[in-house]
Batch of 3 targets.
Target 1
Amino acid sequence: MPAYKAPLREMRFLLEELLDVGQLSRLPGHEEATPDTIAAILAAGAELCERELAPLNRPGDEEGCHFENGVVRTPAGFAEAYRTFVAGGWTSLAADPAYGGQGLPKIVNFVIEEMISSANLSFGIYPGLSGGAYQALSLHGSDVLKARYLPRLADGSWSGTMCLTEPQCGTDLGLVRTRAVPGEDGSWKITGNKIFISAGEHDLTENIVHLVLARLPDAPSGTRGISLFVVPKFLPNADGTLGPRNGVGCSRLEHKMGIRAAATCAIDFDEAVGWLVGRPHKGMSAMFTMMNSARLGVGLQGLGIAEIAYQGAVAYARERLQGRSPSGAKAPDKLADPLIVHPDVRRMLLTMKAQIEASRALAYWIGLEIDLAGRHPDPARRQAADDLVALMPPIIKSGFTDLGFAAANLAVQVWGGHGYIRDNGMEQLVRDARICQLYEGANGIQALDLVGRKLGTGTGRLLRRFFHPVAAFIAEQQGDAAMAEFTLPLHKSLARLQQATAWVAETGLRRPEAAAAAASEYLELFGLVALAYMWARMAKLALGRQQGEDGAFYQAKLATARFFMAKLLPRHASLSTSLMAGAEPVMALPEAGF
Amino acid sequence: MPAYKAPLREMRFLLEELLDVGQLSRLPGHEEATPDTIAAILAAGAELCERELAPLNRPGDEEGCHFENGVVRTPAGFAEAYRTFVAGGWTSLAADPAYGGQGLPKIVNFVIEEMISSANLSFGIYPGLSGGAYQALSLHGSDVLKARYLPRLADGSWSGTMCLTEPQCGTDLGLVRTRAVPGEDGSWKITGNKIFISAGEHDLTENIVHLVLARLPDAPSGTRGISLFVVPKFLPNADGTLGPRNGVGCSRLEHKMGIRAAATCAIDFDEAVGWLVGRPHKGMSAMFTMMNSARLGVGLQGLGIAEIAYQGAVAYARERLQGRSPSGAKAPDKLADPLIVHPDVRRMLLTMKAQIEASRALAYWIGLEIDLAGRHPDPARRQAADDLVALMPPIIKSGFTDLGFAAANLAVQVWGGHGYIRDNGMEQLVRDARICQLYEGANGIQALDLVGRKLGTGTGRLLRRFFHPVAAFIAEQQGDAAMAEFTLPLHKSLARLQQATAWVAETGLRRPEAAAAAASEYLELFGLVALAYMWARMAKLALGRQQGEDGAFYQAKLATARFFMAKLLPRHASLSTSLMAGAEPVMALPEAGF
């Protein structure tokens, strides 16, 4: 089992040096969120993750959740850890002070979510879902519903779920069959079967708040006829105490590849009492406002898994003695050299490191923009931030979860056969990471969202929020010869991406299948350019600081940036060639030919 | 659980139409191995795999092996299936008739190994290891040892193992500590601890024959001081009956990510009686002669997993209704279209199909060359075949096992969240496939073998055995305009590979770390060109037959070939760029910087 050490130095480098997190404390309502305060919170979060959550990860996987007579029990230690989590105030970081929250900037939650995902992905799913439910109610719920549910979600005594999927519908929510009929006093009665409900039933909280997609009797078919309801496991009394059990039950616990300590449930609603959240038939748009944020959250899960996988791989590569360096023994006093001297092992470690560090930079940049979008006094700046935040979720969700899975596999590869043994904890990372590419919109769906929705929004307005700063940065570096090794490849890849963008937009108009066939490669290309941009920005900083105190830190940044440019970024050329191959190679084969 | 259907039409296309398997029956000793006979054997093998082995795969994973007091029990049904397997003569296909074998060409075994790997990878490991032990004894054992062991390995009543790995040594066999001291009457006493021993202990056979690497008392250190021994679990009496239990015991069963029905054991040797196989201190070279064949076998495992994953993905994509085609409803009478109409789903399916079919062609080509290397009357032809067979194992082992894992993951992706559920059988393929990239030389080691050993052999003689036929084929197609869409990209990629080869050879001389840093990308590039060559050859055939009977089969070949050229082969450009980036980006970061 690899020990987890939160990369606090990395985090502070990004927040304080690269992104000027200090600007947050100049926003109204965030005056207390100074860099030092944020750093102190992150240090406390790191300790929680390292000491409480990480040690439960391996045993939680081995034990899994238990299901008996509709009751779900989480693995040993989870309930206690959750109490510690709640007592530390970790469920209420970003919640509104009006409902008992701490009102901290969202970026703080972002960083904590990454740490939790490194330490114990399964554990993080429980409070993670509560955060989603909080957000849905807070954005779309009536004042009565907000007053009833938000304080309990914020203080962690109740948890939340999102009930979307049904046996016949996953991606295609237009096929939802769960129905709602009017009940008494403005409530509704919900009946239907939901599956794959994360944290759908468990023993961590006294109540569970389900957010459920269902159809009203007069609903039009398809996605335009779906409404959102809040359906609690126990019906709350007017005084806030728990009333009778609602018609909600867990009928099955899924037996999964990974995240075995996270309860994934089939939930049956049998005339369960619920309340409408938002307007009738507008459930999908309520969902959409949450989806961007949920997708960023899953992206952070991928990043978190990648980080712990990297740490496990580095530790083993330093310690395991096997073979000799091709340039002669590096540890002649020992029977063999450590793995880390071998170029192919270094290639694997650097492939992880170079993607993780730039992905983290990208994630935190976007996290900060969320806060700016919410509170910046200048409406134009808010709009700019909002646009960028709207654009990036598919790239972050898909790119980071692919990274999480790839990094977990690279780490297993560094461990060799020992990586395949369950006791060593590395293969669990592969199994856990795999879910992130599937849930919250499978990665292919992210690509279609990017190409089909984001690209066209405001005739490319969202896109320009990314392209302009990148182009501006490149232009600013013109006179800086030391930056050329970073800006030239960045420039080249940006040009490819712009060309590919034009191709997708034009060809997609003529033949929608061509855009859809190119979508996954286009998304990958976009992600590559985004990471290249983050590396160029980090390199700029590092060049100026490599001689100073802590110079080794900045020199390592430069070496990693060079690895990225030389070994990973070249993929942009192939991607742009193959994505522009058009629909024909993908569509020509008749169905019978498969 | 995806049903398995052996792709017999594909197999006959390759053997009979592409590779002229009929030439085998013109070789001395293989007169009876006519195409029809081979096809009949493959049909029988298909039935065995589909009906007996595939249904045990999912329950075998769920149950796993059992360990109690040194005894290992395989999952329910395995012992019975093994009896059926033995009764059908499947353990003796390629064995020498002098020892009770059927003396069939190796290519038959190749195809059967692929089928077994599709149906039940765990099951296949038991007879697979026996095949390795048979080969080791047959090539290096004395006549006495051969007479004692080969008939029992061939008839399947005994099984074999390869005992190489120890806790402190995996890749680096020079670190082997197990020792052998002279015993009575020419035998030896072996003492040491081996780990990760596949089929090391089980209940399928009455005896287990361990082939063990150990050191003699006077052995030089490193790999030049290792000898090979045969150490049976029960000592055979002179009359062939089983004598007393030897000092060999299983001390642990590994708890693994996948192949859970295959017993992976820690085996302790405590003054166990063994006999030297081959000459003292020459154990490594005895191992090396087997290694090429074992690596091809693991490659076939990867191919087999890719095939069953593909079948499972296609079945789901045809059946699951979700969303609408971007060009309008294709199944307007239903609530949604099947997944297979979606371009991104087709991209995933074709990515599997295009690699699987060309990989199979490559594997069978090399399988046939093994038979030619063994029995062709012309020594020059034998040498040419032998060279090609020596060259390709790293490319096949590494490339095909990466494909197996990638295909299993693509299949899970097509299944979406349902792919993550154990009952559906898709995630098991991911877990099972993962071992193939690790054992029998981790894939990075394959790349180092290619670059460090194969490239230089006979100053490039092995390489030319591949480059020359590819270049000759391209030259032959000059006048064929219909072939240009296949030969042009093939030619371009071959040129890149030749350039990269020259770079690796030259740079590697100056700085060995540069070659090692480039090795994995070089291997990937090589594999890509090899598949492109197989597609061009298949396309040539298909172009001539697409109008005839079964024209749809050949048209599908052409569509798939076009997908490969347009969507997968372009990767050669990026690979060659990044592999030629040199050692610096990989070596610059000091160890402390990780």
Note: Chain A has a mean pLDDT of 97.
Target 2
Amino acid sequence: MPVYEAPLRDMRFVIHELLEVDKYQNLPIFSEAPADIIDAVLEEGAKVAQEILFPLNQVGHEEGCTFKDGEVTTPTGFKEAFAEYREGGWVGLAGNAEYGGQGLPVFLGTAMGEMTCSANLAFEMYSGLTTGACAAIDAHGTEEQKSFYLPRMYSGEWTGTMNLTEPHCGTDLGQMRTKAEPQDDGSYSISGTKIFISAGDHDMAENIIHLVLAKIPGGPKGIKGVSLFIVPKVHSDSEGNLGERNGVSAGSIEHKMGINGNATCVLNYDNAKGWLLGREHKGMEAMFVMMNAARLGVGMQGLALSEISYQNAVLYANDRLQGRSLSGVKEPEKAADPIIVHPDVRRMLMTMRSFNEGARAFTAWVAVNLDLSRAEQNEEARQVAEDLVTLVTPVVKAHVTDVGFECANIGQQCLGGHGYIREHGMEQYVRDARIAQLYEGTNGIQALDLVGRKMPAHMGRLLRAFFHPVDNFIQENADNKEMAEFVMPLAKGFARLQQAVAWLGEQGMKDVEQAAAGATDFQRMFGTVALGFMWARMAKVAQAKLAAGTDEVDFYENKLITARFYMARMMPDTSSLLAKVTSGKDTLMALDAAAF
Amino acid sequence: MPVYEAPLRDMRFVIHELLEVDKYQNLPIFSEAPADIIDAVLEEGAKVAQEILFPLNQVGHEEGCTFKDGEVTTPTGFKEAFAEYREGGWVGLAGNAEYGGQGLPVFLGTAMGEMTCSANLAFEMYSGLTTGACAAIDAHGTEEQKSFYLPRMYSGEWTGTMNLTEPHCGTDLGQMRTKAEPQDDGSYSISGTKIFISAGDHDMAENIIHLVLAKIPGGPKGIKGVSLFIVPKVHSDSEGNLGERNGVSAGSIEHKMGINGNATCVLNYDNAKGWLLGREHKGMEAMFVMMNAARLGVGMQGLALSEISYQNAVLYANDRLQGRSLSGVKEPEKAADPIIVHPDVRRMLMTMRSFNEGARAFTAWVAVNLDLSRAEQNEEARQVAEDLVTLVTPVVKAHVTDVGFECANIGQQCLGGHGYIREHGMEQYVRDARIAQLYEGTNGIQALDLVGRKMPAHMGRLLRAFFHPVDNFIQENADNKEMAEFVMPLAKGFARLQQAVAWLGEQGMKDVEQAAAGATDFQRMFGTVALGFMWARMAKVAQAKLAAGTDEVDFYENKLITARFYMARMMPDTSSLLAKVTSGKDTLMALDAAAF
């Protein structure tokens, strides 16, 4: 049976020791979460993940959701678990306190997200989509909308969804066909078909608030004519007492590769009553505001599945007796040594470990900056935080889910043939992890967003929010001999990243397809350097702790060991990636489309 | 609905134009397959794959096998399809003609294997395992065993299996517990439990011949005391008329990530009657002889699933309208351009294409050498062929399945969210492809075999069988300006490979864990260079054809385009891989096992 134990010590290391969030205690949002509150929330969250969600993970995978007579039934135990989960107040953890949320920082929500996604991704999405819908209502709703919907959604009494995709359009939403006809009472009548709606229907809450992108007839063509609407599954009176069903219904659920416990619905809108959220024709603007948080959340899913795959691979590697250590028998009293003695098994485990801890630090850094982008009182500092988040959000989404998927597979590989068998759980982590590379904008789209939108924005200003701290760190530690083993590989990788930026800027100016051709490899390179930066910073913290004296010597020594591994085995990728980026578009575009 | 069309033109290019098998017409085996026979077999094979096997691929995935009352039922249509398949003589295609096989070369069998695995891997395995069992009987059986079993198995009347793994041992078979007690009549009584037995039970043939590894009590300890036995599912008289069931039965079937249509069985042996195959205590020797062919076959599975994923990704990329080309609208009359206009989609398709064609050439080269290692009359030439096959077999198995799996995923990625939905087929290819990295020796084991066994063997003699032809090719074309764009990147990658070999040799001599720590990255590097070598050779053939004049200008031009892509985008990996290999074992081994 698979195991899961929330990595609380490492989370505390990242939050308190690496990012030192305590220093922001004077700022709003942060002031809600002093150190003891943070630790208590994480500890309670770990219990929920381990004890309530995780035991249902394989059940959800095996049973999946069922669709009968237009109704979705979630797997055995999900409904009861959701009741417990929402009673704990977890849906509204980082929600606006004015409307019943707990008002805690986003970085705490994403840490919780890692744990819930490790424990049960399919389950987490019912809550995660609700959080996302709340964020949109909070940012764009009228006072009336906020005070009506948010308390009911933060409490989990009602859940939420996001409706973007249609059968013929996903990335290119300008082709959208769903229509919203204005009605005399100020509402809209919405008709059309939406697909891939995660948590689109279920039996765990009495109402579902769909946020739906649709076009108001007569508006601007394409993406500029798209508006966002609130469309409840069930009508209610002003007190929230439920009445008749609205004109929206699930047409079917998809049979998917994974996240079987989450109902991915086709939703049919047939003159459903809806209300405008935000401004007419400004639906994409409303979506984009919440996209940073959503993409950060999806990035966490990649980390989460790598983490649980790692934990179970470690368990197996310590338990499975097969062959003998090349450096001499380690456990002579046993029939063989545990496979963790083998260097190639070590390579696999260290790859996962160095990714998990690096990605945890990176995503937390971004999450803290997301909070700072709202809380910072100094406008310059606030802008820098926002710039960083805006710039690296596609990297978090794409890099952490790409490498997270690879690591979920590496964990499976550690189990050999047993990894292929469902009961061990490893194949579920791989299958569940795969979705994160595809939804919320494919990873190719993330790379294009990074190269084509974020980097050129404001004459390259956003880049500085990442390049300055890396550059400063390298400068500050240039003469630190103890840090040289970390700083030198980082500096090498960073120099390559800068070369790639220069090449993309110069070539992309002449021919934007040159930049697009290098986008994915560049994104990978950026992510590799970003995690390398986090590792160098973590090594510095660990060295300081060891120098100051600590009773956790092993913990900090292991940080240094893992940092060394990352520098030796991961950072070198920047060299081949630079060669790929700068090889340009010609070899990609030369073949006639019909010849493929 | 997914499509599949066998890549016949490319197969003919590889067999006739690149490898020029016609020049071996004077040798046995090859003389059975003149050019027109090869083409006819491939064409018939393509029909079988496309028309009989492929239509059952999704059925097999969705239904899987069922196990009830000790009996396995295969998915709807499998039984009838197998009847057609065996009537076509496909099971014994490369079987010994003296015993009813068709006596065709292995390279033709592996080309057929690519097609059948693309079309329906789960189905192919019933036949593939039979072929493997036949090879063992042909190599080690007595005259009586051969003439009794082979005709019935080549015809597919009876199928075969290989029984190695037990619950507590897979890689380390020395721990085996299954026992074979000698009986007075010369047979053995076999008892024990075997797991992960592909095609271990089913309803498609009236008898199954299990080849079972077991220990004869009193024999040498560990792996040196293992013998191989023939154990039929059903007893028969000397004419092959079936009688009572033998003491072997399926205890259950596994629920797996993929290859759902193939029954992976737990087989319980309870005093089953069996007969020794080959010599007492020399079971592993018997297994190893057939392992080259088996691992080559598994390598083909990686290629096969990448190929079908590619074909369906191409179809989607030409069909799906989303966004506009960055270089200007391509199809103004449509709502959007097909996504194949986007450089990042091109990058994905070209990655798959260059891998597929490169791997097809590489595996065919190895397969031809496997035939030469048996057919060559000149002992020196025969030995070189055998050396090459022995050396690169782990590379074929590991590299082609590793990159094949990555490419199956890339194809899925091209479909965005639709790739995650089962009906599109892409997720099946990913799930099916995953097994090939795990079975027939995990890919980590392949890498260790390459670095720890193959490279040091005979003072490094095997390496020459690969290094000489590459070196010769580079020398021969050093002054060829037209070839410079291919030869230079190849030479760079090859030089790095040689550096890695030197490092591994030197360090591994002092500490074998140094070699083991670099094994997987080295194996990847070797595979990357090997495909690069094939691409350079293919480019040379294409240039010659174009220079000589041809009415297939596009075909050869496209070879050159794809070769350029491989050199620009794949060969650079050798630089980062070299850095990883030479970073050594320290960062892998430093962490205490308990600290993971």
Note: Chain B touches chain A through 97 residues (CB under 8 Å).
Target 3
Amino acid sequence: MIDLDSILKQIEPSKDEKIKVNDFSMQLIKIINQMAHEKGINAEAVLLGSVAKGTWLAGKGDIDIFIKFPINTSREELKTQGLELGKKCIQIVDGNAEERYASHPYVTGILKGYQVDFVPCYDINSFHELKSAVDRTILHTEYIIKNLEPIQTKEVLLLKRFMEMVGTYGSEFKVGGFAGYLLELLVLQYKSFQEVLIAAANDWKPGYKIDLEEYGTTDLFEDPLVVVDPVDKNRNVAASLTIQKMSEFTLAARNFLENPRESYFYPPILQVNKTDLRNDFINRGTKTIIIAFSAPKIPSDALHPQIKKTKKSLVKIMENGDFNVLGSDSWTDEEKTVVILLEMATWSVSLLKKHAGPKVWDSENGKKFYEKHPEAWIEGDQWMTLVERSYNNAESLIQGILTPRGIQRVRVGKHLKKEILKNYQLIDVMDLLVAEDVEEQVLEFLHHYLHKNEFLNRPI
Amino acid sequence: MIDLDSILKQIEPSKDEKIKVNDFSMQLIKIINQMAHEKGINAEAVLLGSVAKGTWLAGKGDIDIFIKFPINTSREELKTQGLELGKKCIQIVDGNAEERYASHPYVTGILKGYQVDFVPCYDINSFHELKSAVDRTILHTEYIIKNLEPIQTKEVLLLKRFMEMVGTYGSEFKVGGFAGYLLELLVLQYKSFQEVLIAAANDWKPGYKIDLEEYGTTDLFEDPLVVVDPVDKNRNVAASLTIQKMSEFTLAARNFLENPRESYFYPPILQVNKTDLRNDFINRGTKTIIIAFSAPKIPSDALHPQIKKTKKSLVKIMENGDFNVLGSDSWTDEEKTVVILLEMATWSVSLLKKHAGPKVWDSENGKKFYEKHPEAWIEGDQWMTLVERSYNNAESLIQGILTPRGIQRVRVGKHLKKEILKNYQLIDVMDLLVAEDVEEQVLEFLHHYLHKNEFLNRPI
């Protein structure tokens, strides 16, 4: 086994960092509580999340301040007063407040280099009192603080770092991977980083079930991985984990256990250059089309599903047009650009295609069909004819689809639709890879598209 | 209705023709019977078939002489003595004898311009005594002579001519259409040419049943059309009729009844020229590949099924290679050349293609797969990789298949296989249509491929 201690030294926050982030968190809580007191608002700020649990990776101490209101507070009052307190607090410490909506509204700001979220919630003591999705965070934090041994914190950090570096960490839509709380529960279940990997490598398969508190409710869920929430027996903590990311983690765990290398805890060293990428694409003998357009100004968790849905719909339309798609992917910097990649196995087809009509014995419909298609003929006892395709090459089909009229066929979110109709670029990847001004991130995206395993397997 | 009498005048044999063919038939029978008598062979020649029934079309009086042997004759003796008598008879009248095997051996020759077949058979009185397939012909001829009114002979001639001209006449493999005996039974059933057409146009559909002698055995058969043989209740006279030709006749009948035109009784006037054909193919935006090779010296009824089987197998191989086939057809002059046509909807595809491996959870096989394909990746929970296609364009796939090794993948008869491996030509139809020495018949084949309905519908 490799020296995990030396890795821990780099990923565990220093005493200094711990003191700083805790002091600053306390300062923010004090500000909120004092303001609430002054304004006569019945609310209390508490520190939750990874900083409260002591499970953040060095330099990534995101501060989650939850502002608890009594359960009988109205939703409107909770939202107005909670957001108001958060915004004011951000102003006091000289940051810029940004209001956001996940399933629940909150304010966020970058303060002293920390990402700080202020989240209004209800002050609940058990899941029976749950009034909004974020209330559970109180119970989660309490549960981990109470159950996770200090020594196990290190195991969580190793697992979190490993997951980050192999690309399976994060339950947001962009990733569809493992949430931080889920990692902590896995360490509680298996005791150590290594035991989690051993279980994933050897035991996990779709439908695998973990029930720490032995509620016996695992059969309620049909997700790839079931981890019953210790604070809410009716919830699967792994509900948002995709089979893709579960599989990838299993593979990474197997690869690591077989050849444990420190490189699994660091980003892969990419050597991306246009010439290699061009040669890779040339060797595949495919035609790869890049569709690029401006990113709409919507939250990340709304943007990524819209892009994925659009990509999936485009693939389906291509295949229905007899253009076989070898692979597809998408990328966005979430600010300026969205890129959808379609790698075609077939990109040019005949102008005419066969179209089946009624049976010969259905004389009434057969007659209509024959009148409409004078060159129709019989195959077996079925009327057949040739009809002209609207598009006989992949690019013209895409151009036809991405018009105000054509786009009605695409399952695409309204924000993306607007941006696409405003302007989009259609580029052959071969042309892109000789252009001067290609962003490094786009090249990395192409590299990752061609080498999908580079995160999961570290040969050096 | 059009003037059927004027058509009849052209297709009905003249009195002179009738006398000549009957006299010649009697002369041949006399020769055979005299020889048999001299050689002490217990056999008797009789005239059967359309000449005996009086249902042949003017100028097409093929003479069928059956040489009947007593039922207790051995098969060997029947064959040796029967063929011997036939051959000698042909020599006596100065023709060239050719021995043939259908389901049964016979000798054939062109004598005084008539195609004459000498067929050894058993002298049976009912189907219970059937010893070979051809014995039934005796009973068929007797049944028609006994039941077909002289006036109905004209109806048979009209139906036969109509069927010939729309391309549905002939039960041999090449056509898969209606046998002469079947036409006669249809006239017995429906009384007239026109009533046969009305029934086909309005009543027929797959599974339609005719049982002239009311045997009640129609449920024994599952063919598209069931016509119980009046002389053998266990046989469907329409067994070899394909659903294709049944459908085509139905369509031709509908077209004729809607717009009765004399042209249905004559060959369509084809105006075939290379420029039009080229333009037709260009407008389809397809790629049409012609495979041409020498015709093997085998009987027509063996050749056509082999060609069709080969064509079907080639289409399947193309489609399995992701090359979509829009249409296919074949042609042979039965002597020199066989042509197989493949019109491609997709003729160029990517060099690499996706190949699915085991599930991720099957770690043993997954590991093997990954070792074999280091660039493999995971989709959902399935291993995937790219593999190189052997052929990424349609022509190279065909060239690869038509080699001693590759041809093992093709379902092809041994005679065709031999000819193909000896030599074949692969020609793009565009190149063929600028060549100097294209046979007229090949051009007509291409024309018919492009205009499949020209026989069934006569707009002028």
Note: The longest strand of chain B covers residues 114-122.
